Amino acid sequence: MTLVSFGETALRFAPPEGHRFETAREVSLRADGTASNVATTASRLGTESVWLSKLPDTPLGRRVVAELHEHGLETEVVWSDDGDRQGLTFYEDAAPPREDRLIQDRERVAAATITPGELPMDVIQAADVVFAAGSTAALSDTAAETLGAVLRATSGARALDLDFDPGLWDADTARERLERLFDAVDVLFLNEDEATTVFDRSGSPRELTHTLASSYDFDYVFLTRSEHGAVAYHDGVVHERDAIETDIVDSSGQHDAFVGAVIDRLIAGSATDEALLYGVAAAALARTMPGPLVPIEAGEVAALVDRETSGRR
User: Fold this and answer.
1) What's the CATH number where 278 sits?
2) Residue 232 is part of which domain span?
3) How far apart are the C-alpha atoms of 10 and 104, rounded to whole Å?
4) How many structural domains comprise the chain?
5) Which SS3 state, helix, strand or coil, does residue 235 take?
6) 311 pLDDT exceeds 80?
7) Hey, which end of the chain has fewer CB within 10 Å, N or C?
């Protein structure tokens, strides 16, 4: 059972916790892309996974692939030597009342020029699930058209994470461009803020998942609620799970870990409520580790799921 994941991956620079870039003397460097983060989690949990993208043939582009390979993720990369750039992000982690800050530097990146003809369409067609990150469609019209072609090429299930970032595009543009893809999406992932900002919908999380599924004919809608857990809709039924309490080291990787774990369980044939529980467990573990790409371990997820299941009996 295989997962093919498509999307751009940036390099994330971050100063030590609480520091600002203007005064920091050192920064960490990590790969950070929704498509690769999700594929890495699914791969570490046992799903055969491959990440597809386009990167510049430069030290920075090769740095992205090296980190993904450290996690055991298989990659199929189109290498560009046409002067395309590597996407960069700059992230400041702040404690209240300050807010976290994310600065995007994604102009003229290699992934903005990717076309369907550059991708291994036979691999895409044979996948059990194809997953794509909506932020890739923000890079260019070409990238958006290729994302749609990837989703439409597979004979398996098609999953999309809305992955909205106001630093890349505004909510109206995101909704208009992504709605053109929704006819090729079976499973939608998003967080609670995205549901209200991009779709301009109000209501409880349970109402939002039902409304989105009905409006766009999705088979599944999974909505994460940060420290409040997650909600899922499938086949006329809304499922809900509270978050699992943990000490928080870094919350930036929790959503992608959730998505990767849910996809792993859906590929394995699990029911929606079980997939939701595995997602919540993976998100809880992700919060205990720094960075957006975390080394989730299958045994830890399974143990946490067993603990939660036993506690509910």
Assistant:
1) 3.40.1190.20
2) 4-312
3) 9
4) 1
5) coil
6) no
7) C
